[in-house]
Amino acid sequence: MPTSVRAEISCPWVKIPVNYPDVRKNGSSPFASEPQCARARGSPDGQIHPVAFTGPDLELNFASPATFREYVAHPERLEAELRAAPKSVKLVMLDEVQRIPAVLDTVQVIVDAQPKRFSFLLSGSSARKLRRGSVNLLPGRVRSLALHPLVASEIGSEFEIERVLLQGSLPGIYRQEDDEERSADLRSYVDTYLREEIQAEALVRDIGGYARMLELMAASSGRVLNLLNLSRDSGIRYETLRRYVSILEDTLIGFVVPAWSPGDKLGLVAHPKVFLFDTGVRNVLLRRNLKTIAQDDKGILFEHLVAFELCRRTGGICPEAKVSHFRTKHDAEVDFVFEIDNELWAIEVKSGSEPTSFRASGMKALSQRLRISRKIVVFQGSKKLQRDDLEFIPFLDFAHSLPM
Question: What are the E-state strand segments in 129-262?
Answer without folding.
Answer: 142-144, 223-224, 254-257
